DNA sequence: AACAATTATGAAAAATTTTTCATAATTCCC
DNA sequence: GGGAATTATGAAAAATTTTTCATAATTGTT
């Protein structure tokens, strides 16, 4: 996991970082609110551990600004306050969880992992190469914008993504996407592959769909 | 929200119930672990508030059994222990959150709502009436089978479901579904509503989409 | 290299979805 | 109840998607 620690108390921040590294994760420290927001524009984190009290924008402001910018990275608030109103409040301004100081490192890690687990299972996108398939909106998102997909193109791409790295025969593709046994007197599959390839290759430098002569198609990420 | 309170201390359970009802929710009490499991086989709840210490199976056992039965209803544990090991443990046996006693009612409610919100956003189907919209496959599932939806029908239905109970003006619908400001010299909205209504009403006895004359459309479940 | 089998592709045809149009039905308000 | 405004609807037109067709290009085999 890639963790951003936003905490102005140096000993706490560094002890957390040390423990995260030891547990096999990656962690960076931001010593105030502005630095935290700044880091987020540059690097993508899996989770943000955010102190409630910080110089240059406090946790609440930072939390709100993160959400307003459309960033949905899970946030866990670290609060020294026992004041319950703030805890309740935290969940309402877009934080995903909070931990009351003093805390044990085990508790912090368990909370972060729980929050990340929930977030990942709630995400309805599949990333591949430099593209991302939105499973709800049925389109591809790129750095440049949106690629619209027809229904058949979406179904085929999703099938490829669900089976990347394995060769899919025309028989399998036909059953899954057209719900009919493969028949050689149509070439809808080839035609659809062609159109999907075109959309992918016009928007990415990767060549995702390989042809395995005599066997089928193979989808690769890299 | 439909809430199951599993708590053996009568005053606590009943005070919680009273407060939930007052806040406009529905709540039932199970006074021990077995009763809790029993209730769950009969009624579907939105969230379970589970005391850690209970006669006839404690919170941990109940939590584990609920998950083993395939039930994914969000669970919030209520724990009198300050023992951190148990808190960490709670998240690992399938609970979604926990609250340490003593708690304020506001905190309990905020936690429950946060957990339910997260759960709902992680689910890829939206149930309404006797139908269910599959957000990935873009079709409706009924007891009798599948209703295919065109893209515009899906978008519109999802928009209705995301805003059920509130009147949506044609201006709002036009912006959201067609990405253009509403114009009275087209009637695509009416036409699409008509087609969607037809599919819904051919497959359900509910009349989901109400017309609010001069204001817009209102989607209702019941 | 030559041949057969397989895959790719542009363009046309067919099918479906989306939108428009003309008109009917309903609601609101006096 | 009558009239204006709003909404509903069937059918046609337009746009898009899906499939087919004819042919080109590529691959594996000998």
Low-confidence stretches of chain A: none
Q: What's the end-to-end separation of chain A, in Å?
A: 21 Å
Order of helices and strands of chain A: EHEHEHEHEHEEEEHEHHEE
Tell me the structural class of chain A: alpha/beta
Give Rg of chain A in angstroms.
Answer: 23 Å
How are the strands ordered across the major sheet of chain A? Answer: 2-1-3-4-5
The share of residues in helices of chain A is 40-55%
Beta fraction of chain A: 15-25%
Tally of alpha and pi helices of chain A: 8
- Number of DSSP strands of chain A? 12
Can you walk me through this structure?
Two copies of one chain form a homodimer. Chain A is an alpha/beta fold and 222 residues long. In chain A, 43% of the residues lie in helices and 22% in strands. In chain A, the strands form three sheets. Chain A has a five-stranded parallel β-sheet with strand order 2-1-3-4-5, sandwiched between helices. A four-stranded antiparallel β-sheet of chain A has the order 6-7-8-9, with helices on one face. In chain A, strand 7 and strand 8 form a beta hairpin. The interface between A and B is medium-sized, with 23 and 23 residues. The structure holds a DNA duplex (30 and 30 nucleotides).
Key terms for this structure?
homodimer; 12 strands; DNA-binding
What does this entry show, briefly?
In chain A, 43% of the residues lie in helices and 22% in strands. The first copy, chain A, is of the alpha/beta class and 222 residues long. In chain A, the strands form 3 sheets. Chain A has a 5-stranded parallel sheet, with helices on both faces. In chain A, strands 6-7-8-9 form a 4-stranded antiparallel sheet, covered by helices on one side. In chain A, strands 10-12-11 form a 3-stranded antiparallel sheet.
